[in-house]
Amino acid sequence: MSKPLLIDKYGRQLTYLRLSVTDRCNFRCYYCMPEEGMDFAARKELLSFEEMYQLCSLFCGMGVNKIRITGGEPFVRAGIIPFLRKLSQIPGLEEITVTSNGSLTPKQIVALQEIGIRKINISLDSLDRERFHRITRRDQFDSVYASIFQLLTSGFEVKLNCVVAENKNIQDILPFVELTKEYDLAVRFLEEMPFNGSDSFETPLWSHREIYQHIQAHHPVLEKLQSEPSSTSVNYQVPGYKGTFGIIPSFSRTFCGTCNRIRLGATGELRTCLYGPPATNLRDLIRLGASPTQLEEEILFAVSTREKDGFAAEASYFHAKHESMSVLGG
Asked: Is 274 a domain residue?
């Protein structure tokens, strides 16, 4: 007998799990967490690799066929490579992808190849060393940039995620587009979101419209590309360029109607929307001795109460302080 699928009350099937394996990161990007004073989870509070594997197996049995590994920075957690190797063997799991800040070692890149992981997103908000330093509060541009080209030459499908913000990196937008002229990679420009671990956030001046208009002013002819129905980005290509670029309205949330994602945080919090409250904590249930059937029922209930979109989810969840993206897992 097959297990029930994860279908919400609006008829959307959730087939994509974003799994945060840690809330820790070796960078301190301003839009993700404060420079100091982060209260990271104790090791015992994190889902163990065995607990994550158990839950991922459960999700895949309920129709999830893609898992994205996020953090924090996934590769700061010891034991991540053996976990990914084991994860890749789950029946029904068609694809594992990874989001990283690019501080990968050559050895880790080779290991990902051996496991069969071929798609990786790198968070990179500037192509200028000084701006990179100001944004990440770390002086590691050269090593990150080198990792990107090692990934490309090793045959990975690489996406560069750039969070666009006034007075931070506007001058990087066009250089990122130009990077797609010679390299077969995908750049994704994101609207800034309020998950910075503080109580301070203003509506971003650069929405998806402003980003597009800025690019079109320099590239009047743009080819709009066909995207998957569940894609969060609207994708384009400058004619003759090898790569592509896309714009993700992450604050405007125009893509919610086709969202197929569910999120599991590093401490077990299950969210059906990035902007909403945790629906339940699966870590706590596992440690209280919940059976697989009981876990399935809890997951199904969470999905059944999923809000229509990110605005409705946000309205149901008041927080004086914006949680850190490193806690939410992106």
From this structure: yes
pLDDT band at 255 (very low <50, low <70, confident <90, very high): confident
Give the C-alpha distances (Å, rounded to integers) separating 75 from 57, 78, 189.
22, 7, 23
Q: What is the CATH number of the domain that holds 83?
A: 3.20.20.70
Rg of the Cα atoms in the chain: 19
> Structural domain of residue 95, as residue ranges?
16-328
| Long-range CB pairs of 284-289, under 8 A, 24+ apart, other chains included | 286/51, 286/54, 286/55
Residue 33, token pair as written in the block: 């967490």
Strand partners for 162: 189
> How many structural domains are present in the chain?
1
CA distances from 60 to 54, 263, 308 (A): 10, 14, 23
pLDDT digits (tens, 9 = 90+) for 174-214: 999 999 999 999 999 999 987 766 666 678 789 999 999 99
Q: Which ranges of 154-241 would DSSP assign to H, the alpha helix?
A: 173-182, 208-218
